[in-house]
Inverse folding.
């Protein structure tokens, strides 16, 4: 067992940074000490001795004594430059910034490889749930077929409130914001962007797939109404904002979408601000991991675990990226969706492969139909705020045939 | 990345062994080939070429070409001798035999250290759920405070049937046996022994504690009746057979007992033959892992993952055992329990610290009281088949005081 005592330079001293300091001063389990903390506002009153603090990044980045840079700031652009420079200077880096990582994955891989220094980011996906490490280390064979999950706590909180307390979307969002679960720009959460960043990172470790966030569909929950929630309840289901990554042969499809979740799906029991991930593999069947996905403590826990891993020389091997050289991203995935609309004209009907159910009333109307992911990704109408779209199921060729037959029989 | 192609010698060719062969022949992800398979019955018809098979253990154990011994036989005594000899001969070993491992943990640690060769046994605890690897690698700091879980699929299946379909114990047991979920000797499952072996292994990786199975209390589910199940239902709870490991300061208490599980505990959603584990740590809050705990596929998946880990030179570091040299096993843990009885004489009343509730009727009677784990472990009456005991909560000193006060006020 080779254990090093690491010297840390921290950027940012908010809740996570302070929690990290508390834990490191208490625990004997992790051989790491904080050398310097770079902050933005030198005038704030701090709980630590002033000697710890600096406003000059170079006091960390150019200090040869510091082995590890821990990036804990809000601004993902500034964070990107810090992480990049730290890697170039040969320092190990820990970050939980999903936007930064998802948007620069390819470059960050290159920098790690070129400068032979690790970047760990367990905290970027589902907070304290050890998603990335498990995908890297435990599911490192090619039998994984599907990853799905609830990756955003604030939308899950909102949907739980809509379902269980009958709150409408705006009230539920306000409550989430009051409790501090929502990002300052709510569209990041409710529009499914935050979940999408996490999905993109997950796809790399699950399947060896690199995909840029802008190529992945995210339909958020902002257009959902109590009509949709009632429809789900009547069908004994829950609506959850679910990330999906699905492998069929060498093709991986992926997207974020409100999804009907039935009672036998473990994701249905993920309530309020909690997160959950469901893995399906040929041999291990279903595996479910649940826990707190965001907040300073869960994120701090993941950051701490990354620091601990660095003391043992751990780095991501990206085995699946190297093994699965043939996988490719595909939007040729047929989906069965529920679409609620007010005016017929807002829906682009020729985008559908078929419609199997149609309900019309004065108050609202909906259809159940099948449509290619590609179509939803291309079309503006899918994000129209007078339409809500919820996934019913991911279809494959065979299921499509059956569905077609049933439709023809029914019509 | 240093990857070796491992040569495997397998003992046993039942479902797990055959599944393993299938997967290894399909996947490119794992660099391992099967060299030889040692079996007991040479006359059985096999799906593989006869050249693979031998009935002579030395053809594997004395073959210098074979790097890894995979032990997949039923008989834990025979398995022990195979594993021991393999380690002595410097071979890496993979096993999923929880009885063998729990009963010989200390010796197996010593052998690994002396002969500098790894023994991996992820499949021994909760089948495909990556419990041990996560405890080793992810929770490797001293912040973990509690581990609890449903570690036995057949008892969970029985309890699910009793609760959801109103079956009585014997019928539910028969159904579990018919479905192949129960061990041939049902007492191993229903008496909580199987769960206890897994708990002992888990305690080592969670807290660095070595404890012999015979020193750990296991109360099974064989005495539970529909009265107990109804009591739970009325209180909006479920009865589950739960393993508990709890850290207070440097003291670890541990036991297996039927437990009232409330609706907000993720273990309540572990149904039928599934397993689940719940970790509580100061920083990460609650973490839940669920999946299939037994059966050839989930076990095979864990064995496969161990083989894969060996190709990357992985071994358990037993960090917590080395770090936490002060932890000790304690039975001085106060528990709040529900005890149902038919005759007053069968309960040893002076073993209780206090009784807070008492219900008496012609059909049955019960009390709620607090009692030290030590007392339950010592006393024969706790296993009397006319008594059923279900844990309500784990108390600590402060709670005890409050309880005492409430009782005095109430009496």
């Amino acid at each position: 067992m080779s254990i090093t005592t690491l010297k840390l330079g921290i950027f940012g001293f908010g809740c996570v940074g302070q929690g990290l300091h508390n834990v490191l001063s208490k625990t004997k389990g992790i051989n790491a000490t904080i050398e310097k903390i770079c902050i933005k506002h030198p005038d704030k009153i701090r709980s630590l001795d002033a000697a710890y603090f600096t406003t000059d990044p170079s006091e960390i980045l150019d200090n040869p004594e510091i082995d590890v840079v821990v990036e804990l700031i809000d601004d993902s652009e500034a964070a990107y430059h810090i992480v990049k420079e730290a890697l170039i200077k040969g320092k190990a880096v820990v970050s939980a910034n999903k936007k930064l990582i998802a948007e620069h994955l390819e470059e960050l891989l290159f920098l790690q490889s070129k400068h032979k220094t690790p970047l760990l980011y367990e905290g970027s996906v589902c907070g304290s749930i050890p998603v990335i490490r498990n995908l890297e280390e435990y599911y490192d064979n090619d039998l994984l077929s599907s990853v799905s999950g609830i990756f955003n706590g604030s939308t899950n909180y909102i949907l739980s409130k809509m379902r269980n307390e009958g709150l409408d979307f705006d009230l539920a969002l306000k409550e989430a914001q009051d409790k501090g679960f929502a990002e300052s720009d709510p569209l990041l959460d409710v529009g499914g962007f935050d979940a999408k960043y996490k999905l993109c990172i997950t796809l790399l470790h699950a399947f060896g797939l690199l995909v840029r966030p802008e190529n992945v569909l995210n339909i958020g929950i902002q257009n959902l109404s109590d009509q949709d929630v009632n429809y789900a309840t009547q069908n004994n289901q829950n609506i959850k904002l679910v990330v999906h990554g699905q492998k069929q042969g060498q093709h991986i499809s992926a997207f974020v979408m409100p999804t009907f979740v039935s009672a036998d799906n473990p994701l249905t029991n993920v309530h309020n601000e909690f997160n959950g991930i469901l893995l399906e593999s040929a041999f291990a069947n279903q595996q479910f991991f649940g826990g707190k996905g965001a907040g300073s403590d869960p994120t701090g826990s993941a950051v701490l675990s990354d620091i601990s891993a660095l003391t043992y020389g751990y780095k991501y091997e990206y085995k699946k990226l190297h093994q699965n050289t043939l996988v490719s991203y595909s939007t040729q995935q047929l989906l069965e969706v529920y679409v609620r609309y007010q005016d017929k004209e807002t829906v682009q009907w020729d985008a559908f492969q078929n419609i199997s159910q149609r309900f019309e009333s004065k108050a609202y109307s909906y259809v159940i139909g099948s449509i290619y992911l590609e179509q939803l990704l291309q079309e503006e109408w899918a994000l129209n705020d007078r339409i809500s779209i919820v996934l019913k199921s991911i279809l494959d060729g065979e299921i499509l045939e059956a569905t077609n037959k049933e439709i023809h029989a029914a019509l």
